[in-house]
Amino acid sequence: MDGLKLHDLRCFDAVASRGSFQAAAQAMHRTHPSVFAAVARLEEQLGLTLLDRSGYRVSLTDEGRLFHARAQLAIRELEHLRTYAEQLSSGEETVLRIVLGDVCPRPGILDLLSRFFAERPRTRLHLDYEAISGPVERLMDGETDLIFHRANPSDPHLERIDLREVAFVPVVAPGFLPFGVGPDVTPEAMQPFTQCVIRDTARRPSSENFFVIDGAHSCSVPDHMMKKELILHGLAWGHLPEWLIEDELRGGRLISIAGRHIPGRTETMAAVRRRDRPHGPVAEALWRHLEDSPKLPG
After folding, report:
1. Which of 114, 205, 236, 252 is most deeply packed, by most CB within 10 A?
2. Degrees to nearest 5, angle at CA 250 with 248 and 256
3. CATH of residue 214
4. Read out DSSP for 6-41?
5. Is 297 within the bounds of a domain?
């Protein structure tokens, strides 16, 4: 077993898959005798008869069939290992870590990423989700290469590519409020009603207050999709990104209470990375891809 060769395994796989030494030799661009010798050498090393040569076409023995299944796995794994080594030697990243923030319109971002990674099958995408200050914390702690989230233009450690504006709208379900809904609704009027908020996923949460009304009862959820469902079912009210609720606003399933007392808010959603850290060739290529792509609709 110590002298087992990848070449011999490949020859055996080719014969087993094609049913003859001649077909295997042609597929591998080898001579018939060299393929025959490779399989015979493999059988001798293993102490197994892998092929039945008694018929017109060679076929797998019972032991050969079992061994072939494992051999194919080993060949694929060795090919992956070789590709991985080539990628390491070229300096390309084997993994690119990306975090999507809670304000991120996922369909548009995933479309951008899909087009990029379709041309880079050797780099694996590791995708995570974080909310509120979680994305920036992961970036600053060196746990991700890039985030898609609200941008902080004042941080000198970060650089960004603005991708679109995201409007947040305060909404309720029809019948949630016992009084008329209009632009003059005040925070005091909303205080008795449960407000739904997104949980900050950061280990060191931000002290920034996103739309929370002092003294109001609140419930927390991990993301805007769940927040939307709670609001639609009349369990709470809250601010939601407009891209997520356009159909519900048009159809009257959600009602905006935005006005001078309870305003909405517009955030700039951007691709953000560390300015003060080196970036590998794949990360640089993704950054150029985002720079060259048109802004997301919105």
Report:
1. 236
2. 75
3. 3.40.190.10
4. HHHHHHHHHHHHHSSHHHHHHHHT--HHHHHHHHHH
5. no
- Contact criterion met (CB below 8 Å) for 192 and 176: no
Same domain, 140 and 59: no
Which domain covers residue 150, as residue numbers? 95-163+269-292
Same domain, yes or no: 149 and 174: no
CA–CA dist 20, 7 (Å, integer): 17
Span 81-103, average pLDDT:
81
Side-chain-side CA neighbours of 272 within 13 Å: the count stands at 27
191, 250: one domain: yes
Residue-wise pLDDT tens digits, 159-186:
999 999 999 999 999 999 998 887 789 9
Same domain, 129 and 209: no
CA-closest candidate to residue 269, choices 130, 104, 98, 127: 104
Return the closest-CA partner of residue 234 out of 156, 172, 296, 152. 172
Q: Evaluate if pTM is beyond 0.70.
A: no
Distance CA 202, CA 136 (A): 9
Do 165 and 298 contact (CB within 8 A), yes or no? Answer: yes
Give the Cβ contact number of residue 17 at 10 Å.
12
Residue 229 belongs to some domain of the structure: yes
Residue 278 sits at the vertex; the CA angle it makes with 274 and 283, to the nearest 5 degrees, is 80
Q: Band of the pLDDT at 81, cuts 50, 70, 90?
A: confident
Closest CA to 128 of 210, 204, 202: 202
